[in-house]
Amino acid sequence: MKTKKKFKWLKIIRNIMLFVVAVLLIVMSGNSVMTMYEHKQYPAWGQYVEVKGKKMHVYTKGTKGRTIVMLPGLGTAAPVLDYEPLLNELAKQNKVVVVEPFGYGWSDLTNEERTVDNIVGELRSALQQADIPGPYTLLSHSASGIYSVYYANKYPDEIEAIAGIDITLPQAVEYFKESVPGIPAYMSLIAPSGAARLVTYINPSDFLPKADEGTYSDENIKLTKMITAWKAYNKDVVKEANEMEHNINATKEMTLPPNLPVIIFTPKIDKVTEDGKSNITFYEEQLKNVRTHQLIVLKGHHYLHWTHYKKIADDVNAFLSASLAHPF
């Protein structure tokens, strides 16, 4: 009797597992079909260039003034869409370029390691293939500050200024005595499994800019949800996050070049260590040997360009006009 009951429960558990697997397969298949359809219906805004045998998306707006190249923060699924309000403002006086790295936006995935050297090399190749000559002002957000510092140190003739939005700099780990976080490998299944698509429907606020109404258009928001379903925490992003400690170690001897104009935007102090260190004191320390610099503190969160895009654009324009008016 007990044996029959045991087999009965095993059969129920087996059927439940088969049902779950069937549902997962249906969701994954549906997600794959939707992704292929969306790629055809919503083509990239800019041009594709070939880098290491893969397609990289380069979006350009504006034709006059200086060339500003915008680099996204780690895991920002759709950089062109995320930056759109800020790039629209900057493009009124500059040529603005967003190169979406592999694993981001409309760009392909890659099997290349996500080392700082590879990422910067791919960025340079994309700019060259798109026939966008320098010198460039690199405008970085968050972790891409590491790539800006590396680029400026390794190819100084190609960079004329750096602008940073709450950027990560390689000295931060030692300064704050913090470890570098990573992302579990299983997170790379979120997009291909269809889980990211489900979450964008169930709780879209987790993936959308927290900005005033009207800052981002309905079309932008729709496309941001769509590309999040394609690219959220994909394998390239996960590998990049887990390569960050190596990339910081590779650049920790590199500083912001003294003769390069640098402007940094940072949120007001939200955390102070026991010995009085904060994001503001850190940036002040990094900028003290930079001949021409400006540190601007704004009320807001890590993605300051969601709410302060007009001020950031005005301040960047004013800073570049003043600091690059006369050669060093």
Automatic annotation (TrEMBL):
Q: Which residues cross the membrane?
A: 12-30
InterPro entries this protein is in?
A: AB_hydrolase_1, AB_hydrolase_fold, AB_hydrolase_sf
> Gene3D superfamilies, per this entry?
alpha/beta hydrolase
State a single Gene Ontology molecular function: hydrolase activity
Keywords, in A-Z order: Hydrolase, Membrane, Transmembrane, Transmembrane helix
Q: Specify the superkingdom.
A: Bacteria
Please report the stretch or stretches of sequence annotated as the AB hydrolase-1 domain. Answer: 67-182
The name under which this protein is listed is Alpha/beta hydrolase
Q: What is the lineage of its organism?
A: Bacteria, Bacillati, Bacillota, Bacilli, Bacillales
